[in-house]
Amino acid sequence: MPVWFMRQAGRSLPEYRQLRSGGAPMMEVCFDSDSVVEITLQPVRRHGVDAAILFSDITVPLRAAGVDVDIVNEVGPVVQRPVRCRSDVDAMTPPNPLSLTAISDAVHSLTGELGDVPLIGFAGAPFTLATYLIEGGASRHFERTKAMMLGDPDAWSALMWWLAEVTITFLRVQVDAGVDAIQVFDSWSGALSLNDYRRYALPYTTHVFASLSDAGVPMTHFGVGTTQLLSAMSDALGNAAEPVLGVDWRTSMVDAASRARPGTVLQGNLDPVALLAGLPVAEQAVRAVISEGRRAVQAGAAGHIFNLGHGVLPATDPGILTEVVNLVHSL
Ligand code: CP3
Q1: Catalytic pick from 46, 50, 132, 197?
Q2: Please, are residues 130 and 163 in contact by the beta-carbon 8 Å criterion?
Q3: pTM here?
Q4: In the chain, domain spans
């Protein structure tokens, strides 16, 4: 069974910490193709995972579109002038694919260096990107986001169409440069009810996947806390050549199989925190996910890709991650 980890590159790895220590800020690193190549390869070398994920961030194409966004250490994305009203939206300019040249250069080099190991490209979904733009950074309740969504639907819709174009441009650059698969992260969509998701997020994400379907690469749709949305998120994949639905740890793989469209592969869903409880606990949890995955396939899922239910936490012992890869392969 194939295995890779969301956020497999990054702070859980000493070699990453060493490369970053005292050096350039995160956003600059994302626009330095040599660094992107090296950091993308680190977890592949160390863990022997079955796929690499491009080292980048969902906010990179916002920067390429001229948004004043930075990635602050231990904080995450921070937007200097958040988007709050229709005139803010109307002032947005489209992303320039040329300003993403460092990313396509990195993808070109990586496809050569990786040999048979596939490279996954990614982007944020419009809703999750909107939360950063409107809140100005991370948020607990998404107050301003939902206030615009519900209170100013015209501004919301204009912003979401602009973000869909940003996402499509970022993914198109990666696909054209040779990534083998793409994943769209809608990390915070779980904050929405199914009705609100269908009305305020789904149309834009559906447009993103439809615009990329001609690439013919496997496409994954992932969110956190999205049990209530899984069937709609599966619909968003449309006529993707090989649709994959990311499942977080709150939903069982069997439950996810019953919600996904026929022909959909499931990806997930080990609780990342289970890796902090020691190797015996981690191994037991891995076995449980794999047997759930087998039941999901019996229940109609088109396959199972082992992953975590969300990203690797910085405190994770990388030795345990390598053991997880070995165990998944042995099973
Ligand atoms: O192997 C990989 O997956 C790494 C590539 C990657 C990063 N960000 C690097 C990163 C990916 C796939 C992302 C996606 C991303 N970025 C998402 C969606 C995935 C998810 O976790 O839900 C989101 C919501 C973001 C926005 C963002 N950027 C957050 C919430 C943070 C963390 C803030 C913190 O410090 O805890 C970032 C910063 C970030 N992106 C880091 C890395 C390695 C840490 C910065 C650093 O190392 O200096």
Answers
A1: 132
A2: yes
A3: 0.97
A4: 23-42+53-258
